[in-house]
Design brief:
Chains A, B: Keywords: Kinase, Transferase. The structure is a homodimer. With about 290 residues, chain A is α/β, with parallel strands linked by helices. Helices cover about 40% and strands about 25% of the residues of chain A.
Chain lengths: ~290, ~290
């Protein structure tokens, strides 16, 4: 692969799309953001994706670069083997053959991936999990999802739905705390704000923060029991709380380890570029 | 591989060892059972394993067969890559390099595996999961452990401790039910007995059985959220309850599925030969 080669990479979210030209070594040489406008319906979203991808490929060529592949990440249930966006609440997708649509439009081999799984791929290979063979990436934003990455490949599952750690049963007795926890998890600014107020000793903030940490530690302990990873990487908005999250979370996880080896617990290193960079990795991995 | 080739396979449990000569196609051509006598200490257990393995290889040769590999399965934490039995409460093992000890004694390439993971390997490739790429094998005996098998390989984890589904947090509010559940899970005869009594409508048996089923369904729903398998195979003593377990368990699991595809739920097909047959598969996979 020559140095002028790039992958056209899109990370499609419910409100915005992160788009980039990514070099084979994972470096981003150009980045753009666009609105998803999911309210216009799934067909319009697909059109927008294809138009942006095509324009990015054109931009690459205009800059003297050679687009060699396309990589697209979407949320929901994604069948990577068939290249189909099976289901997405945010985007209204139902069985959209997005890989083949984009490959036809771009005239390039294209891969379709799940946003959190490709984010985990990027963190495991280029970011905070680099150098460890077994990584669990946990993205905590408006929801919580995970990617289990072993030797540089993310587990997809039988139906493209692996890693739904947000759907596991943690603390069925803690229903009363769900709402504030959800608010914390959903709003990065609020999470940092609650963390600040908890650090300052405000009683409600202390309680809410502690309950969020305990619930998260339950989920991570479950993940560790089943996956036995070397490193857990925390990403998404809540990770911005940094040591105010990681320090108590590490202590709570430690309490829950019995005979298991305790994983290294770190925050994500790639920020919100992880999705694009992972989509590019997936595309490069899939090239014939 | 010629038709006379066999693997010397041992499945070492806390009380007994199942030992076999297994053909490359998975068929058992000879089986023996021996006492583990773990009370004599780990060194004595290792001696017993090596003596039995050597005798089995001799028996194969006497019968005109050709032993080509050794496969040993043990409980606990097993580092398959290094061939080390890291930890076993039942056998008293701490960092026993059992693979190399057995390879030296047998003069044959030998693989060391985890009892439940190789059992899952056998069920996925030769038994109840055959034909499906993503299988979760859950063995319910004196404890509960699982093996996640994708495309014929069982996930080992970073430290040889993957699949500890018995250690995940299910129903923290249900402490009162833990003891009878444990008794159920621990004693196959009792489990069948409780199932019978529950089927006959005995109130305590009905309650205990229902709680066992609900707790197990919680654990399986967690596993399905994280792994997204096509088939869940229930093995171990509790599986002997058959439809009295599977029918209510399938209903309880169905209630817990949201957007996930529901896995096929079946009982194990290979009985207590799964460990030996899986140890043999592991040995054959590892052959240079």
């Amino acid at each position: 692969m020559t140095s002028g080669e790039v992958v056209v990479a899109l990370d499609v979210g419910g409100t915005g799309m992160k788009c980039a030209l990514v070099r084979p070594d994972g470096a981003v040489v150009h980045a753009e953001r666009h609105a998803t406008r999911a309210e216009h319906g799934p067909d319009a979203v697909v059109d927008t994706i294809l138009n942006i991808a095509e324009a990015l490929a054109g931009k690459a060529r205009a800059d003297g670069l050679t687009p060699v592949a396309g990589g697209i990440a979407v949320p929901g249930v994604v069948d990577e083997a068939r290249g189909v966006a099976v289901w997405s609440a945010n985007l209204g997708f139902r069985d959209v053959p997005l890989r083949d649509l984009a490959a036809a439009r771009l005239g390039l081999p294209t891969a379709l991936g799940h946003d959190v799984r490709v984010g985990g791929l990027a963190e495991a290979r280029l970011g905070a999990g680099r150098g460890t063979g077994h990584v669990l990436f946990v993205a905590i934003g408006t929801g919580i999802a995970a990617a289990h990455v072993v030797d540089g490949a993310a587990a997809v599952g039988a139906h493209g739905a692996a890693g739904e750690i947000g759907h596991i049963l943690v603390r069925p007795d803690a229903t009363a705390s769900r709402q504030p926890v959800a608010e914390l998890a959903g709003a990065p600014a609020s999470a940092a704000d609650v963390a600040d107020r908890a650090a300052a000793g405000a009683p409600l903030a202390v309680r809410v923060w502690r309950e969020a940490v305990e619930a998260l530690a339950d989920g991570l302990a479950t993940g560790q029991a089943l996956f036995d990873v070397a490193t857990i990487v925390i990403g998404g908005g809540l990770a911005q709380a940094g040591p105010r999250l990681l320090d108590p979370l590490r202590a709570a996880l430690h309490e829950r380890m019995t005979f298991h080896r305790e994983p290294r617990l770190v925050t994500a290193a790639l920020g919100d570029e992880a999705g694009c960079r992972g989509a590019a990795l997936l595309a490069l991995d899939a090239r014939p």
